[in-house]
Prior knowledge:
By secondary structure, chain A is mainly α. Chain A is built from 15 helices and no strands. Chain A is 69% helix and 0% strand. Chain B has a single domain, classed as Alpha-Beta Plaits (2-Layer Sandwich), CATH 3.30.70.120. Helices cover 20% and strands 37% of the residues of chain B. Chain B has helices spanning 13-22, 70-81; strands at residues 2-8, 29-35, 42-46, 49-53, 56-65, 89-95. In chain B, helix 1 runs antiparallel to helix 2. Chain B starts with a strand and ends in a 17-residue tail after the last strand. The relative contact order of chain B is 0.31. Chains A and B meet through helix 14 of A and strand 3 of B.
Amino acid sequence: MESGDIAWVLTSSALVLFMTPGLALFYGGMVRSRNVLNMLLMSFFTISIVTVVWILVGYSVSFADGTPLIGNFDFLFLRNVSSGEDLLFVMFQMTFAIITPALISGAVAERMKFSAWVLFTTLWALIVYPIVAHWAWNGWLTDLGVLDFAGGLVVHINAGIAALVLVLLLKPRRGFGQEAIRPHSLPLTLIGTGILWLGWFGFNAGSAFGANDVAINAIVTTQIGAALGALGWVAAEWRKTGAPTTLGAASGAVAGLVAITPAAGFVGPQSAIVFGLAAGALCYLAVSLKYRFNYDDSLDVVGVHLVGGIVGSVLLGVFSQASVNPAGADGLLYGDVSLLGKQVLAVVAVMAFTAVATWIIAKIVDVTVGLRVEERSEIEGLDITLHEERAYVTDSR
Amino acid sequence: MKLIIAYIKPFKLEDVKTALTGVGVSGMTTSDVEGFGRQSGQTEVYRGAEYEVEFVPKVRIEVLVPDELAPVAVETIEKAAHTGEIGDGKIAVLPVEAAVRIRTGERGPDAV
């Protein structure tokens, strides 16, 4: 690897890692003040858990050759990872493996036992993430010609469907649907959104794994996706409710970023406009479904990451351009219908696998440590009852 | 008229509110407070050391009721806030000399 490429991927690794504390703030602002530390810690602690799981087993199952369905154990505890380039890839990919389970935490906010979260994250990062990563980036979906530039399938659809399964098992929070459960600090959420947006440049442009034209294309499409996502969401909500909201702009930017993720290095900047706008508007519509179907996806992980991931992965089948990236393919608009079908198949396959695997893991966690906190803990707040801390202390004494 | 002031465990607020509405109390005011009673605090662990926490979080409820509703309201709070554990709280009943409903200018029990 050239030193310029190495420098960019090193930088990208740092940028993507920083997304997880950014996500912590994004989510932390959206919960009530009595649960904010718990919410922050769910993301923050995931960094430690997944770092261990990744170097022990996760990387090997993801990227060792093995079979098209699962990687073998050649890289267990990083043995046989000898070159600097390979080690750099371990690091860069680790940051993706970290943020993916952290994304799920937003759905189960304000009611999941922290011990259950630690066990769930460990098992999920050990089994589900590496298998899906292997499928999409070094397995049967890769062989099929499915495209996933930076993790539309692996990160967003994967986390989104896992979130849906957990939410169905956990049941709604007390008062869900009856009283307004309001965010306690939207400024935190907006700071978190800014950090996510910044980090996403490493996430998408870093996925070119070099400082090259594909990376440049990816950083531009990422910017456009995020900006247009916020525009699309705010336009939709302003029209429907009469008010443009901070939360809407933040959620829309993330929805746009999610949708452009699988496509950032495969579609041109003009197409990115469609990804952003579609994701902003569609995810806005999707988040209201939870009230209709009474599943308490607390911070809209399903509405934003699952729906945004599907929008991006499917639109990629339409807008993909081989002229942007020779490693890519032409989509429907550029004369090849087959890519669209492959993309849809991949979406369905990942959703089916992850739903089943997550359900089994969650059941194991439920019968061993129990998923849900006691009612009293939920009322008094998870911060004081689980962590013996308070976020906001006025210490006049 | 009576002003009922109760100090209860925070997680009992919902139960108390529901019970009071059930017996015809039409309004209440709550605030988050900290204090201690005979239980005199709890211990809390911070950075490896155990500390005595002098002030425990409580919710303070104020309810203004006509005289005839006061005994029922007190009993209702007592029942709804009861756990039997240490720190269930206290209820105080105060006589009220006058009450005014600001919007309408009503005075006395009508204002409550």
